[in-house]
Write a structure and sequence with these properties.
Largest sheet: 2 strands, antiparallel
Helix content: 25-40%
Radius of gyration: 26 Å
Strand content: 5-15%
Order of helices and strands: HHHHHEEEEH
Structural class: alpha+beta
Strand order of the largest sheet: 1-4
Oligomer: single chain
Number of strands: 4
Shape: elongated
Length: about 180
Amino acid sequence: MEEYTEPESLGQQEACMDDLPDPVLIQILASLPATELVHICRLVCLQWKALVDGASLWVFKCQQEGLAREDQVEEDRDNWMLFYFLSKRKRNLLKNVFGEDDFEAWEEVQSGGDGWKVEEIPGDNGFDFPEDENVKKYFVTSYEWCRKAQVINLQAEGYWEEMMDTLQPSIVVKDW
């Protein structure tokens, strides 16, 4: 068996991740999915943890994905990581909000009078939906108290425990 010997240097040095300047490393890290940055990359070493926890990476990531203008700087926000995650997840978590699938995903909690009904727009009210022209149906209630409910599993929607515990994002509930 032949023994391996190191070839003589050709004037080139091997590059090591430790040798990369932070701005270059930030550009590399910003290309990774955000959840991997938080769950995996923070655990690699203290340098990566500091970069992932710092604002520069998240400002750059927000700029890359069109969530922030190119002229925005770290001082523009208190917590760029929180801004990133909340901006990416800013969507209505309610299912079947306009009644396209009748009452699927909704629990009828209380249905007084004639109860709940789904109407086609413009329906008996005689006007179009004010915010979205793609809405074709909507929920209407009777002349007595009616309630409907929906349980939303935030973890199933991509909000992990650590984010909810440490960042504690505001949760806004709206129904038209």
